């Protein structure tokens, strides 16, 4: 990214985005598996969720850096990407002190001594033989079963589990969170607030994600909640929140329609280009306004009436 800014070459930015995306994809798969294999059974859910927690925290920090008085200008935007060198260097240094996964050592290297040494470091005690035997028992049990193929997920005995997994991930994507994060600045500015207000609103939403993720990490291994209860709470919460958003949009549209109401149920919507007004300070952008916003000489209006 820095080289793209210095040399003014757009294809270096595409290359950097490709490398960032590849690293993000690998990390999203490898890191939760590694953390889950290192953690004890009573903390497995919380430790596995910590990856998503720090991911949300990084998004929050990046949004704070994107403020105009920090790095959010045409001259300083590349510094946001340069800040990524700090965690990269920290990971390269700290990975030398991270133990190998006991499951990996037992499954692929068949080295029980190394697995015991890694578990002793992780658990802070030397009596870990029982856990090593449990790992070997899980591995031997899985080896006795036939190796699953891709088509096995659609078999009769796994069909329900596959459908449930797809449904859970589908509900996560249909929650609309990505759409909200992408469009919140446009929505805030469209209703009359400033871009700075939109940035603060976006930071507030990401901060809410951080808090909810931290709360989920604390409750996922709780005997009172657990994974299934938290999933149900999240799904029903998304459902009622989506209903509330739909009702709000219906009310907004109905108010706009009644404002432009004409005889015989006529709806009029007037659009104009913001930069066609006399101030000419904004980037060209289509917006909805009343017909009295600009004079006839100052704006180009496109009126669509429904009779």
TrEMBL record:
Domain of life: Eukaryota
Membrane topology reported for the UniProt record: Multi-pass membrane protein
Protein localization: Membrane
Keyword Ribosomal protein assigned: no
Transmembrane segments: 12-33, 53-71, 149-170, 200-219, 231-253
PROSITE patterns: MFS, SUGAR_TRANSPORT_2
Residue intervals of the Major facilitator superfamily (MFS) profile domain: 1-307
Keywords annotated in UniProt: Membrane, Transmembrane, Transmembrane helix, Transport
A Gene Ontology cellular-component term: membrane
Identification of the protein by name: Major facilitator superfamily (MFS) profile domain-containing protein
